[in-house]
Amino acid sequence: MQYDLKVFNTMSLQKEQFQTRVQGKVTMFVCGPTVQGYAHVGHARTNTIYDVVARYLSHMGYEVNFLMNITDIDDRITNVAKQQGVDPMRMAENYTRAFLEDMEGMKIFTVTKYERVSNYVREMLGQVASILREGSAYVVDGTVYFDTSTFPDFGKLSHQTHEQLSLRPLELAPKKKNLIDFALWRPVSLLEGKFDSPWGRGSPGWHIQDTAVTLTNLGSQYDIHGGAYELVYPHHEAEIAQAETITKVKPLVKYWVHAGLVKIGGEKMSKSLGNVVTIRDVLKKYDSDALRLYLLSRHYREDIDFEEKDLKRMQETYTGMRAKAKLMEERRATKARRRDSGKVLASFYSAMNDDFDTPKAIEFMQQLITDGSNEKDQNQVELYYESLRITSNILGVNFFGRLQ
Ligand SMILES: [Zn+2]
Fold first, then answer.
1. What is the Å distance from ligand 1's center to 207 Cα?
2. How far from chain centre, in Å, is Cα 284?
3. Collapsing DSSP states into helix, strand and coil, what is residue 63?
4. What residues are neighbours of ligand 1 (ion), with CB under 5 Å?
């Protein structure tokens, strides 16, 4: 079969046959940014990866419902806003808009819905109350903790037992029942941007924000959950514990698809380490197509060590590919009868079917362009052209001077 897609699932640590819960439809959720600054190349990579996943699934004929949250309530945002003497909500809104601009700049148009978590505080309060009612949470001095002892599956995604996890305690607090219990709600006495709750003024924990957005929009189960692998524990484990406690439906997610990190000089690129290269700075110097090719030239589960010279080289490669593609466009026999590009594309599809092996898919595309630009037979050129149109569309790389 042309589309015999296999996807690596962090839950089983295996490549699994891809089959959606509802025929012909894919529901997917990807952890979005915390908007305390401009989005960087790390965000560009994660979002380009899931954009290609969504593009490929659409190409396969699925109707894709792709949801992403935007974390605009967070202590990190409040802290940055305080340092800068600005209103945290206004700052978050400005960076949210900047993020959406950057996604457009990266030609990421597959996200069906971006949801700001600040619009979901009511749902979060309802969910925290529901977890308390289930007896899976407790209140200590205004903080509501999830009681992990009530959820034996906690650790299943990261393949660790409660004992192993307890070696790395979460959120040190003397009155917690278990070392790995995490906050669903916490009092915030000093910072602004807090909300009323039955447990006092405070703000929601980070993990419950995703649960509010996903259960509201996608229901109790969905097909794909994405995000960088560093989010597996505790963030995604917490999401499973919260949602499955509330809905009593398992499993929350069918395929856990985690992406590698972007590093710089061996360290993770992150705001807190102060080593970020922003998307907007990169796009001032390079084509978004070159950046996408660069980010997709590594398998999505591996880390990338960002070096500008590699991106520069990819820009040169892209410019060369584009010139050859132009040549093909001029030479093709536009009146030729439409040919089946399936055979030509077999290797491309088999790369994509193998857990989205974009490095191989890009190699194939480069070969396609080389062959197509050397081809003399107009009808044959048309076939290559048509194939390139399909592959470039799936990878979201534009060779023909217009958005495809
Ligand atoms: Zn998340």
1. 7
2. 23
3. strand
4. 31, 210
Q: How far is 397 from 240, CA to CA, in rounded Å?
A: 35
- pLDDT attached to residue 272: 76
Determine the distance separating the centroid of ligand 1 and the alpha carbon of 331, expressed in angstroms: 48
CB 26 within 8 A of CB 65: yes
What structural domains does the chain harbor?
6-259 (3.40.50.620), 279-395 (no CATH)
Tens of pLDDT, residue by residue over 233-274, are: 999 999 999 999 999 999 999 999 999 999 998 898 887 788
What is the per-residue pLDDT across 338-367, written as a single tens digit (0 to 9) for each? 666 777 899 999 999 999 999 999 999 999
Q: How far is the CA of 233 from the centre of ligand 1 (A)?
A: 11
Q: What is the mean pLDDT of residues 373-383?
A: 90
CA 319 to centroid of ligand 1, rounded, Å: 36
Task: Tell me the CA–centroid distance for residue 160 and ligand 1, in Å.
Answer: 20
CA 31–ligand 1 middle distance (angstroms):
4
